[in-house]
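User: I'll paste a sequence; please echo it back and then give the predicted structure.

Assistant: Echoing your sequence first, then the prediction.
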Amino acid sequence: MPAVVLLLLINLYPLGYAGMQSIRDGDLISPGIFVGLANYVNVLSDPVFWQAASFTLVFTVVGVFGSWLVGLGFALLLNGKVPGGAAFKTLLLLPWVVPIVVSTTSWNFLVATPQSILPTIASALGFPNTYFLADPATAQVLVCVFKVWVSFPFMMMMTSSALASVDVNVYEAAKMDGATKWQTFRSITLPLIARPTYVSWILMTIFCVNDFPTVFLLTQGGPLNSTTTLIVLAYQTVFQNFQTGPGIAIAFLMTVVLVIVATALFRQIKKVDFQ
C-alpha cells in the first residue's frame, strides 16, 4: 500500500496539476485565472497546431514503419549465419546507443551548410540550391530519415528477439511442403512475430510522438515551422511564449491520441491467433 500511494502521488499529482493549468490563463510564474476549455478551443482553431499535427503524423508513421522495415531487414539478415554477426550487430546498435546530441551534431556537420559534405557532393553532381535544412521539404525528409536511422536498432533488437523464439521445426516443415522463401516469410514468420511487432509499434509510436530532442536539436522546428512537431510546439508555447495553458492543452491532446492508438494496437494483439 505505501508503494501504491507513492506511485499515485508521483503520477497523479503532476497530472492533476497540469490539468488544472490547462484550463487557466497563466504563465510560468502565476497560475492565472480560470478560463475553462478556452485554451483547448484556441489550440484546435490555430492553423499552427494543425500544421504541427500534420507533420507529427508523417514523422510518426515514417519513424515507426520505416525503422521497423529497416530493423526487420537487418534482423532477418542476422538471424542466419553471417560472418562476424555479433560485431556487425554491435555496430548496428550505435545509432541507438550514441547520445542524441552527438548524433544530431554529426548530421548537422553533414548537411547544415552549403560547405557540408552532402551539399558539396550534391553541388558537384549538378544539383542547385543544396540548402538541405533551409528548404521546408528537404528539411522534413531529413528529419524523418534521421529518425529512422536513430530508431531502427531498437526495432532490430525487438524483431531479433521475436525471431529467436520461433521454432525452427516450423521452417523445416514448410520447406518440406515446398513453400518458397516469400511464402514462408508471409505465412509463417510474420504471423509468429505479430505480437512482438505490435508491441514495438506501440512503443515506437510513443517514442516518435514524444520525441523532442531529435527535431529540436536538428532543426528547432524550422524552417518556417515545417518540422515543428506537437511536442516541440508545446515546448515553444510554454517556455518561449510563456503560455502554460495552451502548451499543456497541446500535451493533453497528444496524450489522448496516444491512448487511442495504443488501445487500438493492444486490441490487435489480442486478435493474433497462432493456430
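The mean pLDDT is 87. Residues 16-251 form a domain with the MetI-like fold fold (CATH 1.10.3720.10).
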